Amino acid sequence: MDYNEFYKQSIDDPETFWGTQAKRIEWRTPHSRVLDYSKPPFSKWFVGGETNLCHNAIDRWVDKQGDQTALIAISTETPDAAPVEKTWSFRELQREVERTAAIMQSLGVGKGDMVLIYMPMIAEATFAMLACARIGAIHSVVFGGFAAHSLATRIDDAKPKLIVSADAGSRVGKVVPYKPLLDEAIRLASHKPAHVLLVDRHLSAMERVAGRDVDYAELRQKFMDAKVPVTWLPSDHISYILYTSGTTGKPKGVQRDVGGYTVALATSMDYIFCGKPGETYFCTSDIGWVVGHSYIVYGPLIAGMATILYEGVPVRPDASIWWQIVEKHKVSRMFSAPTAVRVLKKHPSELMRKHDLSSLKALYLAGEPLDEPTSDWIAGELGVPIIDNYWQTETGWPVLSIAKGVQDKPTRLGSPGVPMPGYKMKLLNESTGELCGDNEKGVLVIEGPLPPGCMQTVYGDDQRFVNTYWSNFSNEQVYSTFDWGIRDNDGYYFILGRTDDVINVAGHRLGTREIEESISSHPNVSEVAVVGVEDKLKGQVAVAFVVPKQAETAADPKARLALEAEVWGLVDKQLGAVARPARVHCVNLLPKTRSGKLLRRLIQAICEGRDPGDTTTIEDPTSLDQIRNALKG
Ligand code: PRX
Fold first, then answer.
1. Among residues 452, 469, 498, which one ends one of the domains?
2. Alpha-carbon span 165 to 119, nearest angstrom
3. pLDDT tens, position by position, 403-458
4. Are residues 514 and 557 in the same domain?
5. How far apart are CA 545 and CA 585, in angstroms?
6. What is the pLDDT of residue 596?
7. What one-character DSSP code corresponds to residue 536?
8. What is the mean pLDDT of the chain?
9. pLDDT of residue 247
10. Residue 251, pLDDT score
């Protein structure tokens, strides 16, 4: 089918388009209306319909293909890095999820209750997510790489009744204890969960809090034969929240529904990922990020595919481990991030070539800009299409890509592609709000209603949803992606970076404001600016400029290094090593406007060796020399 025509249908008549897509999934009660957009920008999809995410991911496949593999959990985080794997058929996965659901119910968790999941990449994490979905509890997965302070902020916002966690994770063969961080986070938070359910991997000794902490293995034994029927949920029931960074230091809980999300994932699995029941999907992301939610856990299972959950790094025991997995499990579709490919590119190609990768039909990459050398290299090595796709935590599934399942439209280097069904994209001039022409840079926005699967609101704060995303232009109410973009004459979009203070380190989205707030808590820091600076491997890294309270620190190289080390330690402890700046520079003054607004874009330009452009708004231009000197020093 001609893609343009297909896309146009989704925009001109969304109700017919999505009404048809809704038939891809199973409903307890069919919807009475496809869309309610009576209170823009809030959209309700499949009004009156009742369904369940876990039913569509597992139960519906049990009768059809119960003995086929559903989940393959592989870990190379073993003492000798030898992969250890365990698999579950759809039937076995159903039993396991029912056990976890029964455990949750025994701890008083039911429909609408919040469960925070702070877990390493182990199978129990997916059981917990699916168990929540089964009983209508809302999950909030917090990335295992975040430390106590980040976790505490999320505990206070989500107010979970239950937290599911583990003794430890492991990174490059080194045990990373979770429990002490969790205890510290609960101590810092005002909200206290009634229970903490702990998976003991016997990696690190745990102290347990009597009455609060309960053991997963013990309870599992008790509920071995539990049968927990699916709870049917209204389409707009909250399936989960997932925190993401923005312009302020306070992360936003992106809230998603049940019906719209299930339909959107089923649609994307067919049109974009071309996944077929019985095939195997391998997404290398982490369950703590949106890609893990949509394309490790829910998407592939909804499509009846086996999904691979991988705990480990791409280069241990050596850089062939992913290709070994692809060969062994005959992976047909793989999803990763450009940073991972850049890491692999540094290793000998023979490692890849010694494996039979003939099952692989395409590699999907997302989360950060895909540069041409990386894309060319991996395309040459694999000999399959490399499909860039652009989206956000907020959208839940690709906004721009190439829908090979509709038409084999060519990809274009440097562009994630064209708008996916239901996304009405525009580029607007940042200051006037006027529509940009072809090849003219603007802010990428989406006209409402957002298609199914996208965020419903900011959890607990409708006004913040409207203010943050829908109020950036005075002439019309549109959803801002906060990304710069450009569109060529043929309708392909190119993404040119964020318009706000969000940075992207190795595909991990971080808010510079959060990092600044953490650094500000150091006793010798009076002011700080954190910017994202281009990096060959990670795409971007965070770089901090601090004004020390003790002026002598800036003048003394030893004291500067000591401060840098202390700041690293502080950020590791509060936010986690993912947020640690690559460098911490000392200056006496930061570039600001006369009204005191930090000019991060100017600092970033200098760090990247670019001309900072218009500097007339700056209060004291010598502050820019300070940045330049600090970089030299
Ligand atoms: O700036 C864009 C960048 O990552 C942001 C969203 O990050 P996150 O919420 O973590 O969701 C990732 C889902 C894949 C976007 O605002 N980004 C994402 N994909 C691409 C991208 N930038 C360029 N090209 C992409 N394919």
1. 498
2. 5
3. 999 999 999 999 999 999 999 999 999 999 999 999 999 999 999 999 999 999 99
4. yes
5. 5
6. 83
7. T
8. 96
9. 74
10. 86
**For ligand 1, mutation pick of 391, 444, 499 (most atoms within 8 Å of CB):** 391
The Å distance, Cα 364 to ligand 1 centre, comes to 13
Domain range holding 624?
502-632
Strand order in the sheet with 306-311: 84-89, 69-75, 306-311, 280-283, 331-336, 362-366, 386-389
Question: How many angstroms is it from 419 CA to the middle of ligand 1?
Answer: 14
CB-based burial, 513-540: b 16+ in 10 Å, e otherwise? bbbbbbbeebebbebbbbbbbebeebbb
The pLDDT confidence band at residue 633, using thresholds 50, 70 and 90, is confident
Using one digit for the tens of pLDDT, what is the confidence trace for 45-74?
A: 999 999 999 999 999 999 999 999 999 999
Ligand 1 geometric centre to CA of 65 (Å)? 35
Ligand 1 nearest atom to the CA of residue 388, by list position: 26
H or E, element range at 633: none
Lowest mean pLDDT among 452-456, 503-507, 531-535: 503-507
CATH number of the domain within which 603 lies:
3.30.300.30
Helix (H, G, I), strand (E, B) or coil at 234: strand
Separation CA 67–CA 90 (nearest Å): 6
Q: Tell whether 480 and 602 lie within a shared domain.
A: no
Residue 615 reports pLDDT greater than 90:
no
- Domain membership of residue 55 (yes or no) is no
Backbone angles phi, psi at 417, to 5 degrees: 125, -145
Ligand 1: centre distance to CA 64 (Å): 36
The verdict on 521 and 567 lying in the same domain is yes
Per-residue confidence band for 78, with pLDDT thresholds at 50, 70 and 90: very high
Sequence-distant (6+) residues with CB within 8 A of 565 are none
| E runs forming strands in 402-524 | 418-419, 424-428, 442-447, 457-458, 478-487, 493-498, 502-505, 508-511
Stretch 240-246: mean pLDDT: 93
Residue whose CA is at the smallest distance from ligand 1 atom 4: 367
Kindly report the protein residue whose alpha carbon is nearest to atom 13 of ligand 1: 392
Residue 240 falls within a domain, yes or no? no
Q: What is the best residue among 444, 504, 505, 512 to mutate for testing ligand 1's pocket, by most ligand atoms within 8 Å of CB?
A: 504
Looking at the CA of residue 504, tell me the nearest atom of ligand 1.
4
Split into its structural domains, the chain has a count of 2
The pair of structure tokens assigned to 270 is 């067919």
Closest residue by CA, ligand 1 atom 26: 390
Atom of ligand 1 nearest to the CA of 497: 1
Q: Check whether 248 has a pLDDT greater than 80.
A: no
Q: Show the ligand 1 pocket: residues with CB < 6 angstroms.
A: 244, 289-291, 366-370, 388-393, 416, 481, 483, 495, 498, 504, 509
pTM: 0.95
Same domain, residue pair 565 and 624: yes
One domain for residues 438 and 536: no
CA distance 450 to 471: 15
Ligand 1, atom nearest to 502 Cα: 1
Q: What is the pLDDT of residues 356-402, one digit of tens each?
A: 999 999 999 999 999 999 999 999 999 999 999 999 999 999 999 99
Q: Which atom of ligand 1 is nearest to the CA of 392?
A: 11
Alpha carbons within 13 A on the beta-carbon side of 477: 12
